[in-house]
Amino acid sequence: MRLTRLSWIVFAMSIAMQAHAGHEVGDYRGLPDDLAAAATAYDLAQFHSDRGELERLLADDYTLAGSNGKNQTKAEFIDDSTAPGSKTTYVAITQQVRKVWPDGAVLGGMFDARGMDRGKAYTLKGRFVDVWAKRDGRWQVIFTQAHRVP
After folding, report:
1. What are the φ and ψ backbone dihedral angles of 37, each rounded to 5 degrees?
2. Would you write out the chain's pLDDT as a tens digit for each of its 150 residues?
3. Which CATH class, in words, describes the domain spanning 3-148?
4. What residues does the DUF4440 domain cover (predicted)?
5. For the chain, first and last CA: distance in Å?
6. What is the value of pTM for the model shown?
7. DSSP state of 78
8. Max CA pair span of the chain
């Protein structure tokens, strides 16, 4: 499993609950309505490999810091997230973290995931943190830290 797939999984399901015919999306109750809507849209965009929505919801200066010590840009992340033969089929989030201030937020937690990465089955456990910023009236992810755990 490549680190880039790990980061895609992490983004796809920031804080999970059962919904949408077996798909999982975040449980964003208690967050500001506009942030909850953006986070839900982001979960679904990743789950469905929706390039257009990912373009909209990731800031142009987005950075992914992964377990391998390398960073990815927005374009690199989206290319990996929408690669043929890649599909997340299950994600569960525990130990969630939610910190919000007027123009920023941190959403994160532990995850357990499985699916296909370029046609190869995977299972993965890890921890992630997504940093959101409200710029020009809209929420976007500006940074993600993701790493595997035993």
Report:
1. -65, -45
2. 444 555 445 444 433 333 333 445 567 888 999 999 998 898 888 778 899 999 999 999 999 998 888 999 999 999 988 899 888 888 788 888 999 999 999 999 998 888 888 889 999 999 999 999 999 999 999 999 999 998
3. alpha beta
4. 36-141
5. 14
6. 0.82
7. H
8. 41
